Amino acid sequence: MLKIAIQKKGRLSDDSIELLSQCGIRFSKADNKLKAQAWNFPLEILFLRDDDIPGYVADGVADVGIVGENVLYETGLAVQVAEKLGFGKCRLSIAVPNAVEYTQLSQLKDQRIATSYPRLLGAFLQKNGIEARIHEISGSVEIAPGIGLADAICDLVSSGSTLISNGLKEAEVILKSEAVLICNTQLSTEAQRVLADLSFRIRSVLQGRNYKYILLNAPDAAIPTITSLLPGIKSPTVMPLREPGWSSLHSVVQENDFWEIIGRLREAGAEGILVLPIEKIIQ
Ligand code: ATP
Ligand code: ZN
Predict the structure, then answer these.
(1) Ligand 1: which atom is nearest the Cα of residue 89?
(2) Which of 123, 202, 215, 268 has a CB 3.0–4.6 Å from the CB of 225, allowing a cystine?
(3) Over the stretch 81-129, which tens digit does the pLDDT of each residue have?
(4) How close are the terminal C-alpha atoms of the chain, in Å?
(5) Which long-range contacts (CB under 8 A, 24 or more apart) does 162-165 make?
(6) Residue of the nearest CA to atom 5 in ligand 1?
(7) Which of ligand 1's atoms lies nearest the C-alpha of 69?
């Protein structure tokens, strides 16, 4: 049995539940319940506030957890990062009022910076030899400059729209963060075995998200060029079409390179290109 802590309600909740579900793990989440038992996998799910997750994992109340790197590194607790999960992406940034002409870090000297991340901000300032005054506040950090409480803030940013609506602009990025699977450093052999299975499933799902399945038709003469563009996992499948001189080619393509490769495939003579999502890639 493995106990996993995930965020009860917030930005990481839906993606965490979706990931477990894509790993084939079934459980029902009642709104007011603190925990759930998976029906088809030796997993107990604990629903907690994200700030408490690293502590519970470090203490062994939970074996593993899903939490943002920002929260994890702010606590400074000794847990292990087992997987990066590719969702909950954001930046921990210092932002200043729009009116400030910000050009360099030294401008922050002696300034009052409001944040919920005193440890990460402190470490960043110290590393850069800047002495500033850190004001720790627990919520609504972005309003601090407007009400005269601080000269700058250090907070999470994703689209930047919260900064804009508060008349602030991003000045320095301190940390790029995403959700990670963390684990206790002294798991039982049994828990390690379940974690290995869970990690394997998670990697298969994440790999699937990074790739698309692609099918296309091409004149036989174009197959070598197209193969070099779409090497696939081992090599592409090439099957003859009924029409002489033509083949159908099946492969996978990385999501990141997708549009560039599509353009080059068309130039090479590919037609009838179909692109499908992949649920899992087992390697
Ligand atoms: P809780 O009630 O569990 O303490 P919270 O209000 O502290 O929740 P959320 O706002 O739900 O936390 O954010 C959870 C995590 O989502 C953050 O710690 C961060 O890792 C990630 N995240 C991604 N984008 C953003 C963003 N734009 N603002 C805040 N957090 C973000
Ligand atoms: Zn929180």
Answers:
(1) 23
(2) 268
(3) 999 999 999 999 999 999 999 999 999 999 999 999 999 999 999 999 9
(4) 25
(5) 163/95
(6) 10
(7) 20
